Amino acid sequence: AVRRRCSHGVHKDRRFYVCGLERKHRCAYFKWSDDTTQSSTQNNDGLPLSLPVVQELQNVFAECKLESTFCGLISAQYHNQGDSVVNDSQSNQIDPFPSLTIEEDRLRDKADGVFLVSEKLGRALPASRSEDDFLDVANGTTELLLCESMDLFSYIAPKRKSSDSLVWSKGWFSILCEIISGDSGTTLRALAKKMLQRLCGFRNDIYHKVRDHYVFGFQYSKLLLQSCEILDAALLVREQARQCGRNWRGDEVTFQSLPASGLFGTEDLISEDCMKREDSISIVLDELLSQARRGENWKNFCGGLPEVNNLKRGSTDVSDLMLDMLQEIFSRPPIVSLMWLGSCLGGSNQVKVFSLVDVALEKAGSKSVSISTNDAEELMLYIGGDSNRPTPEQSLTRCMTIDDVNAFICQFVLSGRSDKLRSITSAIGIKLALQFNSSDRNRLFKSLVDSGMRKIGSMGQDSINFTDVLKLFIEGFGLDLDLHHAASSFSQAFKKQMTSLNCYCEKKCSPNSDESDISKLDFDLSDCEHCHKEQLWTRLTSQDKSSSDEASDMKFLSQQMRPYQRGRLETSTASNCFSEFSSYYQLKFRVALSQVHINISDPRGRLAKTISVYFTPRQVSSGSSSDEENVNILKSDSYSRFWQKCGTINLSRGATEASLELKHPVVAANLKITFEDFYERNNSVRSSSDGPVLYCPRCTRQVTNAHGVCGHCGEVAFQCRKCRHINYDRLDAFLCVECGYCTSGGFHFELTAGIAVNAVAIVDEEQFQTSMALLRVANKRKTDTTKKITALLQKHRNVDDDLNELSLYGPHLKRALTGSFPKSFVDDKPEVSTSSKPIRSSSSTNRSRLLSLARSLRQDGDSLGGSRGEFLRQALLGSSGPGGGDDYMDDALLNALGGGSGSSSDPLSRLVANIRSGDGDDAAEKTEKKAKLSPAEECRRLYMQKREAERESWELNRRIDSWNRLNSDTLAAKMCNHGGTYMTTDCTVCCSKVAYKNLSLLHAVFRANISQSEHSVSGELVKLLLQESADLDPALKDLKRQVLITVASKSESASGLVLNELQSRLRAIQDRTSAQILGELVQMDFKGVDKFIELAVSVLEG
Known about the structure:
The chain has 1102 residues and is α+β, with helices and mostly antiparallel strands. Helices cover 51% and strands 8% of the residues. It has 43 helices and 12 strands. The strands form 3 sheets. Strands 4, 5, 6, 7, 8, 9 and 12 form a 7-stranded antiparallel sheet that branches. It has a 3-stranded antiparallel sheet with strand order 1-2-3, with no helix packed on it. A two-stranded antiparallel sheet has the order 10-11.
């Protein structure tokens, strides 16, 4: 047989054995090279050792738990290599395995060809290893030690059986699965896989279940370790809410007693400083998602309890308090912990966590894959625990009520930040509702209708997922629900929204259009939660597509409001301070930072090698209004734990510019730039001591004095050349701690950033007052920009095109109707500008008088000072008005005043020279006016500022509401059964979509139970359903016709209303829409169709 490899297909790159003869004489022999089930039937499983030797080794290792000791040693050696759950821990160092042979014996074996003999006998070294590496096995310093150990145990490990006395410990499954899922070499992972398959009895189903269970445990442990700070902050918020409520005398909140919904509403109250490991969390979630979607093993894992040993192994980088907290979390099922994490995290990580929850829960109508009792008991031998493991649904319903499901839908489906989040959580909400009885679902549905329908109008298209949930409720549980009240609410909502659509929601101009004529611009100024986010995002992405430079490849953040622009750091800095090697900058506003650029002028002396950039996402405040006191907090030791590193700039020797491009943009409110490392001097000049070489700041000569005093000029070399400050605490400081001056060159930083929202999590009363002040500013800005846009559009709109019928009236009445000024006021302005003759005569008189006065002053020898000089200056300034310039200042007067080509040292001469240069200033003003934006561009700019103010106001309101709920111990905003008025939306983008969703809910009610919903059909509703305009959405138009056909065919009372309306329209205006609906009705078979047929015949005959 020969071994070959598949070149394509599902088994690509998989090796197999076939007959080695020619194709014509080849037999049908075929075997996969990695097929362990076939190889297991061979004698002693293909072992190079004899069967008695293997049995004897198994007995030796089984006695006194020797195999368990080796398991611990191998586990410790593997983690010592740096592949543990937390690989940056170095506290559990172990001593290397001692060698039983000396170096001379190993060298002699190599010279005698021992390794060559081993290779001939089939024990060849791995291809990636050399003989020199193999010599280090006895010292236990390389991965080859693990490979050889796995190779030995993969041959002698017993096949696990429930009645076998030679069963090895369960610790082998943990370390083997960790090696398989880690980043070890290919050889080590293959050997670990081989040994695990042997321990599982070469059963692929058991092997996959055991492997997935332990791999999920490792990833789950890593996820909790990365998120422990966030969970601790969320638990603190929950405890604060409890102390503010009625249950303030109760027990402290812990994770052991916390329900799955206990952390709902804490997302906007967790400080951004706790979100340091979002990137690491994202990586772990991606790995977990890729493995969880493979089958039922993830569902089985989420229902039971995880392995606590996984936490103990890699938890040395957390404090004892955090470790105790994580132990409490591990005492709860993973599905509950994932619900907690989904409530705390934000952005894409929140979506990923809820995706894991969605995979773990059963779909509506699907049948779960059940495991037999024998298989479950056998599986417990490998993974431990009870065979009666609860399902994820059972684990959630044990600690959740129907009110918690209500809060979940309100928090994430109705008020979720992104469309992906609302879509995933809506599916989870339906799955959770399936676990309760019909009465609980009916109560939940009624509360969702009463409270949710009041909010969907102002939310625009963001409410689509919530209406989809209501529709799924009706379609899935319609027979068990009370639809009488729901039909009335849906009918009222549709009628109001459709009336608003017909009356107010005309088609508006897009803010991103290229229309340059402002008279054709008509922006939508309504306040819509969906549009102020969508249009800002559209502006970012549209610039990304149109940009051809490096900025087009940058990623945009959800909190970003303006595109990336490159600018100097000083322009965005409110205040700054310095330490010996760091510069601290407090920004005026939060920015989405993408790149950092540095320009170095005249590099000299100590050349910087690496520069690190740090950021913090929250503004600092010391309780004082002084910016200097606030910025000094940035360099305090207590604030150092909040700095997050976003990158490092590496500089070549003598470089003058460099850039740092962040892999993931961040939102920064403060920046710290630290000079980490420096190049060594390459000259031969050295100081007497090992300290840095000093140069005099005045004469630039080398200073060899121990006190830093220059022997040539007597200047102190330690002082700052700019502010002359001496830092006695750190004489070798790179920066001046007072002014930031650097003797080794000028460092200028630039940022590629975009403005982000200033709303942050409210953690105390001071931050609450700050948020309230920002909210007032945002609301005022929104109101002012709306007024400016309205005034600008009215000013430049072409009124004559819209008011052609006023041409029949006189000019005075026409001006009054259009709101213009009377003619007398309009005529006053031309009179001022056209009356040039009186001004010129007055200018001539003043010129002669000033000329005679100047000559007399010259003759008297007056130096144009005192009261007469001041009088002349005032007269000159007063005369250089409308008729000023060179026409007024002739050569005689200028020479008399000394403003000619002579000296201009006296004040009056300089004044005259300034007046003569007035024409140049006028030209500059004209150029500046030309550079201003056009009215259409100015209108677009104001419109985007309005949307920015709406976005910031929405973010601030969201956090303020969360803070108010915390103070009343109602973190989870539940929907209550109280009525309210439906608030329509006037947004041209969302109005038709919302009306469509409202009508789809009404249609679902009609189809589910017409007897409970036919009372909502009225004449007004039928008229709105039949009313169609030319620009109506086609989908809404089709749905309106389907609703009419449904109610006419299922309800006798509604059928009469439809018949009467169709009859009046066909006989009065011969409506085409009514004719088409009538044509579809006559083709159907229902009670009362004869009346529609009679109407159709009468219309055709008439």
